[in-house]
Design brief:
The protein has 2 domains: 176 residues, MOFRL domain (glycerate kinase, domain 1), CATH 3.40.1480; 172 residues, Rossmann fold, CATH 3.40.50. 38% of the residues lie in helices and 18% in strands. The protein has 16 helices and 14 strands. Helix 7 packs across helix 9, helix 9 packs across helix 10 and helix 13 packs across helix 16. The chain is globular and about 65 Å long.
């Protein structure tokens, strides 16, 4: 198998390992005596709901509403019949998400002890399930989200802030529901803690208003006055905290993480092993600035090439997690995966025998329509021959422009799942 084909096949295996249509059915409960209401939010929400519809008894009642990103739903003959799918804004929330979140809250409040709330939770739900707290306008929530994205805050920190600006996240959905709750969760965060996935609408929130204030200060985020005022009031005790561990609402809640980044990395490792490469999983919790993570991975690759250590060739370095990008250019094109890969290419400078791919398992990397990018040694020489300055494009946050020019973009379209970023470096 040629290296390009192996890159693509390993990525496809990683995505397939988190396919909701395959993994959800084994976790479905028996229908309750009363109603079953399905709610959900995230990039995988539509495919998770479709899996429920396919495998739920035809004679058992089923209804509900899930929110997914624009273009991540189903249309035509593939559209869902019993569960409504609403498409809304991501990564910045919008009015469609707010209206749908309000409906989800009403559905949850109407349930009783004989009913079941089946919550389908996946990455991206923090912005999609957007129900601003009292005193917070949608414009305030949008501005705070944009600021957090631009300042490079990790997703866990972003979600601490968003939980405390929401009426439904941080365990509040569970608190408003009188029925047993089963949450099926596809993790897109390092550590796979449900409280961080879609800002944990049905699980306890250990964070506080003061934590949110500290995060904004740490990253020097400039947020609207209404946001600062709410967080300050909460820290003083003037606003009730999010539900904490041990709260009565969680006694009737069961949460299962059914797909993780590490399982996807293991699937990709199996593909590389079958192709004759020794797979080395560097971890599913790799975080930090994308370009700095790339420099570290390039250093490992150079050590392998020069000294055959710490691993002997041929080897596949595989990693997951969620890097960050601190924007220097607000008009930059691309995302954290393509930025990682361009930094890696710069560090390796066309080293022979090294190929790489970095892509988001949801099929969208940042601001454009590509999932990520891939590179081969020949691309470096081709780009130089055309006068492309990789360093200048990286400084301008335009990794997309570089890989578009050399034919290195990876396009999958929406995958309707999300277990974070996937990276593989082949050293032949």
């Amino acid at each position: 198998m040629n290296p390009e084909a192996l890159l693509q096949k390993s990525f496809a295996a990683a995505v397939a390992a988190a396919d909701p249509l395959t993994i959800v059915p084994a976790h479905l409960p028996s229908p309750p005596r009363g109603r079953t209401v399905v709610v959900g939010a995230g990039k995988a929400a539509a495919s998770m709901a479709k899996a429920v519809e396919r495998h739920w008894p035809a004679t058992a009642a089923l209804e509900g509403l899930v929110i997914t990103r624009y273009a991540h739903g189903y249309a035509g003959d593939a559209a869902l019949k019993r569960i409504r799918v609403v498409e809304a804004g991501h990564p910045v929330p919008d009015d469609a998400g707010e209206a749908a979140a309000r409906e989800i809250a009403a559905l949850a409040r109407a349930l009783g002890p004989d009913d079941l709330l089946l919550a389908l939770v996946s990455g991206g739900g923090s912005s999609l399930l957007a129900l601003p707290a009292e005193g917070i306008a949608m414009a305030d929530l949008k501005a705070a989200t944009r600021e957090l994205l631009a300042c490079g805050a990790p997703i866990q920190d972003m979600n601490v802030v968003r939980k405390h600006l929401s009426l439904i996240q941080g365990g509040r959905l569970a608190a408003m529901c009188g029925a047993p709750i089963l949450s099926l969760v596809i993790s897109d965060v390092t550590g796979d803690e449900p409280t961080h996935i879609a800002s944990g609408p049905t699980v306890p929130d250990p964070s506080t208003y003061q934590d949110a204030i500290d995060i904004l200060a740490r990253f020097d985020c400039q947020v609207p006055p209404a946001v600062s005022e709410r967080l300050a009031a909460g820290a003083r005790g003037g606003i009730e905290e999010t539900p904490k561990p041990g709260a009565p609402a969680f006694a009737r809640a069961d949460t299962r993480v059914i797909a993780t980044a590490h399982r996807s990395l293991e699937a990709a490792a199996g593909v590389c092993r079958a192709a004759g490469f020794t797979p080395v999983i560097l971890g599913d919790t790799v975080t930090g600035e994308a370009r700095e993570v790339a420099r570290a991975h390039a250093a490992i690759a150079r050590e392998i090439i020069a000294f055959g250590a710490p691993f002997r060739r041929p080897v596949a370095l595989i990693s997951g997690g969620e890097c960050t990008v601190t924007l220097k250019n607000p008009n930059g094109r691309g995302g954290r995966c393509s930025e990682y890969l361009l930094s890696l290419a710069i560090e390796l400078a066309g080293a022979p025998g090294v190929w790489g791919l970095a892509a988001d398992t949801d099929g969208i990397d940042g601001s454009e329509s590509n999932a990520g990018a891939w590179f081969a040694p020949a691309m470096w020489q081709a780009a130089a021959a055309r006068g492309l300055r990789a360093d200048k494009l990286l400084a301008a946050n335009d990794a997309f422009g570089y890989f578009e020019a050399v034919g290195g973009l990876v396009h999958t379209g929406p995958t309707r799942t999300n277990v974070n970023d996937f990276r593989v470096v082949l050293i032949a």
